[in-house]
Write a structure and sequence with these properties.
alpha/beta; Hypothetical protein af1432; Rossmann fold; 4 domains; seven-stranded parallel sheet; seven-stranded mixed sheet; 33 helices; 24 strands; 45% helix
Length: 743
């Protein structure tokens, strides 16, 4: 018997049969839908599935598995450690398959690169292993697999695996077909290796569930945005809509019966949406009951999704996580770093792109992304369009430069792009008052109002939020004052987020919460009054959404106070010139009730491309956006790994640190020791989760200045550090206060 893997033991024949079962399902679902997959290309995918792992039959590879299984080794004449995927490419009987030159190259590269390697193939080593180790047992391999193999190695196939020969966009349709074959081969192989189905609940229609929800709770009456989304299910869509327009339902109605990916910028928002879509009292889109099992219809995919599933007592967490990782559920709620890395052309990018070629993608809250990420999203949407997928953008605001760029990129698309704006000026929520002073100078007013109302204070930086908290605490009297920002441990932040939600929902509560822009999009809270530092307009308007959300409160007097002096984060958090122009625009509505339509006018003026071009600073909004888009278009293929692409998307300047005093606590040391001793994978994950709850996300440079080390941390926890500074459960990490060694 020839083995494909050792844990658990599986034969090459069994593994290949798993792929072919998945192939049949994939073809049944997607054959009429995929733009670049004609009948011949489906044949190429079939042959890729059949031959992708035949190189594993080579005795040197077999002996690695046999050693792990305590079985006797096979005899070898040549002992070069040749990657099996290169040998697989040689074993394909190209002539017998009647392939054209282009098809041969495509198939050789799809199979030869289904595992991406750091090193190029060594032609002589491959030839020696083939002739010495494979030829003598060729009949046995053919009998085991049940297919004919090449009697003589076609060494030209090795030349096609040279990185300089790899298929690239300039080769037109053959590149598109290659991406589809290789990407779908990855899906087939990874699902088979993980032991999960390649598609789940494929005949489910999330639109049906939304329609039932609207019928049960709203008498079947759909809002204009929801009607617009449903009418344009076969098109690309951009919907600019204020809060309270039913955006989630609109996005799901647009996805309808197709496979869908719903993206949001923040994990906490994604977790909330995942819960809401599954909630049986709401949309109730969960699982399909099949004859032998249930098929999970919805998946959750982000960097800490497994922890969330554990925390919420989900059953079979590891299986649910694998389903989502392999893109199996009909609907996946996710972050863009999980599905939109492919514009970096990292090694293995084809899996993401081929999946999205047969799916619909919703980008929610586009306004939350900085210009560098917005450029990446626009580039990704252009590529999705080229491969036959569809997208919908939902956003509170849409800078004109983004819209103009996307329309230009899609000028030759065969799928129409529909853009519409949805505002309701009958709902009046915000009466604006500008204050020509620092927010720190108005503590008396804030405390006075806090005695009677729910007051939210938003600062631009953590440092300023702490300063504000200290000032308010000194003169608050009996008014409760709380602080929330990103520099608390995960455990304390979760506690504080639960507290602010409870406070906001308590109709009798009074007091003050001091926060940062952390609450702009992540928390569904509603306060009576907002006191905020000036910021750029899109951020500013997001903050207003945390006050009088439904427009039911009296706004005869101002309910939003904006402080325009001594603004923190100028030049570091916010572009100086955009900030100044935002202030000039906001001054025009000082003392008025700000209508939703006026907000959109102001955003359009702020991001006018002609105005943006005037800023020649290379770090300006315009230059960052246009430079990033240009670099992505010119980006070389196959040069970085998937992890490196993920790092480019995420903020890699942030590291996880555990405050030293928390790490040295007896309870923590017990967890660390348990982690060291445990051999059980699930137990170690849960113990790691306990330690993660003590971590804070900190700037790498600042943390190094204060002092970080790894003394006492297990080697496996490479992404965690211990930081030598004070931690206060009420104020968070004190990066500017080192631990006094004599205290």
């Amino acid at each position: 018997m020839f083995y494909a893997k050792s844990h658990p033991p599986e034969s090459l024949k069994e593994h290949t049969e798993r792929l072919l079962e998945n192939y049949e399902l994939l073809q049944a679902i997607y054959k009429p839908k995929l733009l670049w997959m004609d009948g011949r290309t489906w044949d190429l995918l079939y042959w890729a599935a059949v031959y992708h792992d035949v190189g594993k039959a080579e005795p040197v590879f077999q002996n690695k598995i046999r050693t792990a299984l305590n079985k006797k080794s096979l005899p070898t004449q040549s002992n070069h450690d040749v990657p099996h995927n290169y040998l697989s490419a040689l074993l394909i009987p190209y002539k017998d398959l009647n392939l054209s030159k282009e098809e041969t190259k495509l198939l050789a590269q799809a199979v030869g690169y289904h595992h991406e390697r750091e090193r190029d193939p060594d032609k002589m080593q491959i030839k020696e292993n083939y002739e010495s180790n494979i030829v003598p047992i060729l009949d046995q391999i053919e009998a085991h697999i049940g297919v004919k193999l090449a009697a003589k190695p076609r060494l030209k196939a090795v030349d096609w695996l040279d990185v300089r020969q790899r298929l690239r966009p300039r080769e037109g349709e053959w590149f598109y077909r290659y991406v589809m074959v290789k990407g779908l081969l990855h899906r087939l192989d990874h699902a088979a290796s993980a032991g999960v189905a390649i598609e789940l609940a494929h005949d489910y229609d999330v639109g049906d569930y939304v329609n039932r929800f609207i019928a049960n709770y709203f008498g079947g009456k759909k809002r204009p945005l929801q009607q617009f989304a449903e009418q344009h299910q076969h098109d690309h869509v951009i919907a600019i809509a204020q809060t309270g327009m039913g955006k989630t339902e609109a996005g799901l109605l647009w996805i309808g019966k197709e496979k869908g990916f719903f993206t949001l910028p923040l994990r906490v928002s994604i977790n909330a949406m995942y819960r809401r879509i599954q909630d049986s009292k709401k949309i109730g889109f969960t699982s399909k009951q099949s004859q032998n099992d249930e098929e999970r219809a919805i998946g959750l995919l982000h960097s800490t999704s497994m922890d969330f599933l554990y925390d919420n007592n989900e059953k079979e967490v590891e299986v649910l996580y694998q389903y989502a990782r392999q893109f199996a559920p009909k609907l996946i709620v996710t972050t863009i770093d999980q599905i939109l890395k492919f514009p970096f052309y990292y090694r293995g990018f084809e899996k993401e792109l081929a999946t999205l070629a047969g799916a619909k993608v919703v980008i929610d809250e586009m306004q939350a992304y900085e210009p560098r990420i917005a450029a990446l999203i626009i580039r990704a949407l252009k590529m999705i369009d080229e491969f036959g997928g569809k997208f919908m953008i939902m956003t509170a605001t849409m800078p004109k430069i983004y819209l103009d760029t996307l329309q230009k990129e899609l000028a030759h698309s065969t799928t129409p792009l529909f853009v519409d704006t949805f505002v309701d000026d009958s709902v009046k929520r915000h009466h604006i008052r500008l204050r020509d002073k620092s927010i720190l100078e108005d503590a008396d007013l804030i405390c006075c109002v806090g005695e009677q109302k729910k007051v939210l204070v938003i600062c631009n930086t953590v440092k300023r939020a702490k300063e504000m908290y200290d000032v308010l605490k000194k003169q608050k009297g009996s008014i409760p004052v709380k602080l929330l920002h990103s520099k608390f441990t995960q455990a304390d932040r979760a506690r504080l987020e639960a507290e602010i939600l409870a406070f906001a929902n308590d109709k009798t509560a009074k007091g003050i919460w001091v926060t940062t822009q952390l609450v702009e999009a992540s928390l569904d809270i509603d306060f009576d009054l907002l006191f905020t530092e000036m910021s750029v307009l899109d951020s500013q308007f997001q903050r207003y959404g945390r006050c009088n959300r439904k427009g039911l409160k009296d706004i005869a007097a101002a309910n939003v106070y904006v402080y325009t002096r001594d603004i923190s984060g100028k030049g570091s958090v916010y572009d100086k010139k955009l900030l100044q122009r935002s202030l000039s625009l906001l001054e025009t509505v000082d003392g008025t009730i700000l209508l939703e339509s006026k907000k959109l006018e102001m955003i359009e003026a702020l991001y006018d491309p002609e105005e943006l071009k005037k800023d020649e600073d290379e770090r300006s909004f315009y230059n960052i956006f246009t430079r990033t888009l240009r670099e992505l278009k010119e980006r070389p293929l196959y040069e970085i790994t998937g992890q490196e692409a993920q790092d480019l998307l995420r903020d890699i300047q942030q590291i996880l640190v555990i405050p030293e005093e928390l790490f040295l606590a007896h309870e923590t040391q017990q967890v660390v020791e348990q982690f060291r001793l445990s051999k059980d994978r699930k137990e170690r994950r849960l113990l790691r989760r306990e330690l993660e709850r003590l971590t804070v996300s900190a700037n790498r440079f600042k943390a190094k200045q204060v002092g970080i080390h790894r003394a006492g941390l297990p080697e496996e926890l490479k992404d965690m550090w211990i930081i030598s500074c004070q931690y206060d459960p009420h104020k968070g990490l004190e990066l500017d206060q080192e631990i006094d060694p004599f205290s």
